[in-house]
Fold each of these.
Amino acid sequence: MSWTWADNWWGFVFIAIAGFLATDIWRWLGVVAGNRLDETSEALNWVRAVATALVAAVVAKLILFPTGTLEHSPAWLRVGAIAAGAAAFFAFGRRPPVGIATAIATLALGLWWLGF
């Protein structure tokens, strides 16, 4: 017996509803709750600190315990790319896109230079 979409449409509906319930409701609740938050509150400062710590942890994991092509790249190149990105970030008025682009470009050029 062959499978057709018309025979099992309810499975797709279930996936769509479950996906909506798992993600979009929380987004809307965040919007509603976020409108009532004071931007200078301690709770929001804590949320910012946790978000910053999570990003820093992911970056540190990529530098110290890389996978894929980065696993074969030298540690000095990974650390140098982050240092160049941080220097560009501060030199150009604390603009995240400048720091990120500089770090990526430094890493890409270093990998190209090393023959990766």
Note: The chain is about 75% helix and 0% strand.
Amino acid sequence: MSNQVLPVAVQDRPVACCPPMVRAPLGEEAAVGLSRMFKAMADPIRLRLLSMIASHAGGEACVCDLTGPFDVSQPTISHHLKVLREAGLVGSERRGTWVYYWIQPAALNQLSALLQAAPANSDATASGSNSGSGCCE
């Protein structure tokens, strides 16, 4: 792991959540940003790391607490954590010799809001009332 790990802001992605896909088609810029987050979570180790960090007492986890449950090397875990950080899903901070990680709630809220399904009796998708200008652009 590098000597300095700085928190990564969720850049070029607005803090406000996108409307669900059932109400408005995604614009190109939003799709690129959101796909980075989905790609980062598509790996089983990264998904487990994300879950471990999110469920850890105090809302943050030391990298020393994240390496034990996996049958991979510590540098591999560090790589996976870097991918999650670069995707904007976790933040991190070096404290002495250890790095601590926490979930970026705004990023998870974006993903959650995007995937909300329309109610079964909703006419939001049938009306076509959205201009199709795209989400979050």
Note: Residues 28-41 form the longest helix (14 residues).
Amino acid sequence: MVGNVWLLPLKQVDDDARAIKLGEIAELEVGEEQRKYVRDPLRMMLIALAEESRYPYAVDSNGTAVGVLTLQTGAATLAGWPDDDSVLLLRGFLIDRRRQGKGLGTLAAGAAVQEAAKLTAALGGQQTGVVLSVNDANPAGLAAYRKAGFEDRGEYLGGDAGPQRTMYRPF
């Protein structure tokens, strides 16, 4: 737990708990301005559950899902990082539009780095931190990641929603 945010690893809970949490995730709302950056939260979690390299999390506050995120191994170049294996990729990160502006995104981003360090240790990996890309036209996202300790590592032009910033935070 970090502040009032928990990250619940969906691959590590029993089937009943996962089904309940996925039901809550299905109720999350994506703001109109977010739709160009992220996809449907439930769909993202189902895809992540099916892929061995992805580790999906429900972002919980007060016992209810308020967002989602995925940590992924072997995919850091998708965020403009020079290699795939030295860091974990943070992707598919969103906070329900009704709960934005309360600092939950910053708390969850910080918690994701802590979870990534635990995941690296559990997998016996050699990763040193977390990388992500955030769209240049997403000032709230840029600010939240900076508040969570992520450093801007430069422009990335590989995204499908326009120019982005590659951001990194060590464990």
Note: The two ends are 16 Å apart (CA to CA).
Amino acid sequence: MVEYRIDRHSGVATYVQIVQQTKQALRLGLLRPGDKLPTAREVVEATAINPNTVLKAYRELERDGLVEARRGLGTFVRRGLSTAPADSPLRTELDAWADRAREAGLDRDDVAALFTAALDRHFNGNGNSNSNSNSTGHGHGRPDDRQPAHDQHSQGDAS
């Protein structure tokens, strides 16, 4: 089951963070079709956010066709986004690279900038790789940041 971590200082609306973290878990294969998402009550207890914020995130995921609410049963994953499993060799290489970057004294923003630049080069048509326009280069270089935080002003619904 996914455990949501809310960063109240990120400038990203709380419900968007839940959507992004769910999509990241789907991409990594940590959530699969049929898996149950935590109930709104469980998320509220773990994160101290407003239940309506959780429901708003789940509704957006449902609109995207990723989850479905089953009355009286909960919210379940309908389809995954996984293309690279969490245990892939690429994940191992990336973890090792992140370790080296940290040992070299780079902070999270430095690493994110380097990673975003590499993504832009390889996925926005500037490099020799396949030109995949899913990555906009916005955000902090995490895979879940490819979605624009289009409602950053709605943080008032959090907490």
Note: Residues 108-123 form the longest helix (16 residues).
